[in-house]
Amino acid sequence: MSDTPIISFRNADILNGEATVIYGLNMDVYPGDFVYIVGKVGTGKTSIIRTIIAENPLEQGEGKACGFSLNGISQKEIPFLRRKMGVVFQDFQLLMDRSVEDNLRFVLEATGWKDGEKIAARITEVLVAVGMERKAHKMPFQLSGGEQQRIAIARSLLNEPQVIIADEPTGNLDNETADGIMQLLTRINIEKGTAVVMVTHNRQIFEKYPGRVMVCKDEVCNEQMPDTPIDLELTI
To answer: In the chain, pLDDT over 70 holds for what percent of residues?
Structure first.
């Protein structure tokens, strides 16, 4: 495992709009890590994610992600940063007017893929990886929530990211379906060595699928030491 972090923050103040929600964040994510960011609603979890993907500016402290400085990153650089990441949202964010296959093709073409055969092969590859190879011609509305999230994870894998950023990826799913999504993310993390940074407020998830845990509380976010109880009223 590399000793160079994929994502790094030093004394970073995390903003939500113009308001600072986390002060002095220190955080390193290394290749192969599985890192949870946990805390109650409104404690800045998603704001950290938005800062990592350069949706929120970083004005105080230092931040780096996938080889890019987050301090003053230019609009031209942001698409190149995001190509090195796979982002998975709670609400899937699939294009509802086109098939699964066309959703994935759209992303590849938008990120510079031109060879039709290579595009088709890569789409098949990621659908097989998430167990959805028979759903390529379905429309998103024909799929269950869990199936849509698997497609969203397939989409996140298209450009072989260094890290998957997942913002409450099980938030809209029942427990059994959420379990399947967690097994999938864990397998990708172990088999491919892809780092995962996942926001959740569900204690059951990070207790069942162990990883490093960053706890957001009282305007700070610190790593919880292993075997230390987490003093948070999170979802059971």
So the answer is: 94
Find the domain containing 180 and state its range: 30-55+75-224
- Kindly report, residue by residue over 45-89, the tens digit of the pLDDT: 999 999 999 999 998 999 999 999 999 899 999 989 988 999 998
- Residues near 19 by beta carbon (within 8 Å), at least 6 away in sequence: none
pLDDT greater than 90 at residue 100: yes
**Nearest-angstrom CA–CA distance, 46 and 16:** 9
112 located within any domain: yes
Task: Tell me the torsion sign for CA atoms 232, 233, 235, 236.
Answer: positive
Report in angstroms the alpha-carbon separations of 76 from 6, 17, 86, 213, 226: 20, 21, 18, 33, 40
- Could you report the per-residue pLDDT of 192-213, keeping only the tens digit for each? 999 999 999 888 898 899 899 9
In a domain, 70, yes or no: no
Burial class (CB in 10 A: 0-12, 13-18, 19+), 177: middle
170 found inside a domain = yes
The C-alpha atoms of residue 65 and residue 222 are separated, in whole angstroms, by 19
State the CATH number of the domain containing residue 139.
3.40.50.300
Q: What is the DSSP letter of 145?
A: H
- Rounded distance, CA 9 to CA 52, Å? 9
C-beta separation of 92 from 140 below 8 A? yes
Which amino acid makes up residue 224? Q
H or E stretch at 196:
strand 195-200
The reported pTM is: 0.90
Residue matched to tokens 């172990």: 190
Number of structural domains the chain divides into:
1
Q: Is residue 60 part of a domain?
A: no
